[in-house]
Specification:
CATH topology of the largest domain: Alpha-Beta Plaits
Order of helices and strands: HHHHHHEHEEHEH
Number of helices: 9
Number of domains: 2
Largest sheet: 4 strands, antiparallel
Structural class: alpha+beta
Helix content: 40-55%
Strand order of the largest sheet: 2-3-1-4
CATH class of the largest domain: Alpha Beta
């Protein structure tokens, strides 16, 4: 392993705000350095690094910044999208490992897909209990152009949604950077929404959160989900 690259990479990450100085080192760091300097499997190395960072509790944005630092100190420019995606996939798999037994989930965020959400809505309306439910929708303010930033925003939104809604709510990825929770209306909902709004999802930005009461008719609810799935 190139100790000079190790030192410069760590120094660059610390200078750019790495918050877990004592937890920066991991065997995946050595793997990534060897892949960069010796022409190894860089995509696999990025995936392993993402998994290691998630296991240490590092957020996706901070982790991607650390990955960018490695590329900067080795004069490789910015990580390509396939490498960013490999990192994010490793991070997501480790972060959402307890959810792997769920069916119909988005493989990157671990949230339910729109298809599963439609199935869940059908169950609610057949049981005549949809009237007591709301749809909480969270997304970034404005458009995000860069693919890596969109990926980070989606993963951070998914994490924020899970932290806010820890019960039996249905949590879904509605669009690439839009998530939603079908939840009961109760006296704790306001605090959950406040927590979601206070979450940082990208460069200090907080999500836009909207609350919609589920329509009385099943067909209208499906139309609402269809509209929300056409967004950013």
């Amino acid at each position: 392993m190139d100790e000079d690259v190790l030192s410069r990479w760590r120094g660059r990450s610390m200078a750019e705000g790495w918050s877990l100085a004592d937890d920066w080192w991991t065997p995946a760091v050595a793997y990534a350095i060897r892949a960069v300097t010796d022409g190894g499997d860089l995509r696999r190395a990025c995936e392993e690094l993402g998994a290691a960072r998630a296991g240490a509790g590092v957020g996706i944005s901070e982790g991607l910044g650390d990955l960018a630092a490695l590329f900067a100190v080795t004069d490789r420019g910015e990580p390509t999208f396939p490498l960013v995606r490999a990192y994010a996939a490793g991070w997501a798999e480790q972060s959402f490992a307890p959810m792997n037994d769920l069916q119909c989930e988005d493989p990157l965020t671990g949230l339910a897909t729109v298809a599963y959400l439609r199935t869940r809505l059908g169950e609610l309306y057949r049981g005549a209990v949809a009237g007591g439910h709301l749809l909480v929708v969270a997304e970034p303010y404005g458009q995000i152009a860069e693919l890596a930033e969109r990926l980070a925003a989606a993963l951070n939104l998914a994490t924020a949604l899970r932290r806010a809604f820890t019960g039996d709510e249905t949590l879904a990825l509605l669009a690439p950077t839009r998530v939603g929770a079908v939840t009961r209306e109760d006296d704790r909902l306001a605090d959950k929404i406040a927590g979601l709004r206070a979450t940082e999802i990208l460069y200090g930005r907080h999500p836009r959160v909207r609350v919609r009461r589920l329509p009385r008719a099943h067909a209208q609810a499906l139309a609402l989900i269809r509209t929300l799935s056409l967004g950013p």
